[in-house]
Write a structure and sequence with these properties.
Family: Belongs to the DinB family.
Pfam family, one: DinB
Number of helices: 5
Keywords: Metal-binding
CATH superfamily: dinb family like domain
Oligomer: single chain
CATH class: Mainly Alpha
Protein name: DinB family protein
Largest sheet: 3 strands, mixed
Strand content: 5-15%
Helix content: 40-55%
Distance between the termini: 38 Å
Length: 169
């Protein structure tokens, strides 16, 4: 019987999701960066940048034990990318860092808790492996799904993620 570790499972899932996310980001039209489908929605560029910056957030789950949103010295993503090339370069850089940190960790470390909080208000306090899945992968997949809707509304062919899309049939 073959068993794989928590770390190996997360890395395998991450590998698939990163490839799909990059396909979506490659189609984001920078010339329509200010597009938003609704006044309460992020702009296309804010959303695409958020999807990329979430990779650094996932890395925090692996490398740290907590993150306080009120801490002015806490790591923050760099300035907003000013081109699609910059966005994709950041995606590649953050993806490589996340994969490297996950490969350097082990199942034992992934069972230790990560606490996300804003001062005394605890947003969540869960095992790192769970944090990576819930607030990392699932959160990213949610926003990537929003990005595909933006692409559809802008009449840009949507890439297939879990099989062919309507544009690829």
């Amino acid at each position: 019987m073959h068993t794989s570790s928590l770390q190996q499972n997360i890395l395998a899932e991450l590998h698939v999701e990163l490839a799909g996310t990059r396909k979506v980001l490659e189609r984001v039209p920078f010339e329509q960066a200010e597009y938003r489908p609704h006044p309460k929605s992020m702009t296309l560029w804010q959303l695409a940048t958020h999807v990329v910056n979430l990779l650094a957030f996932k890395t925090l789950f692996v490398t740290h034990d907590s993150r306080d949103f009120l801490d002015p010295n806490a790591p923050k993503p760099g300035p907003t990318p000013t081109s699609k090339e910059e966005l994709l370069a950041r995606f590649d850089d953050y993806s490589a860092t996340l994969q490297k940190e996950l490969q350097a960790t082990d199942d034992e470390t992934l069972t230790h808790n990560f606490k996300l909080h804003r001062g005394e208000q605890v947003i969540f306090d869960r095992p790192k492996g769970t944090a990576i899945r819930l607030m990392g992968l699932n959160h990213s997949i949610h926003h990537r799904g929003q990005l595909t809707v933006y692409l559809r509304l802008l009449d840009i062919p949507v890439p297939g993620l879990y099989g062919p899309s309507a544009d690829e049939k």
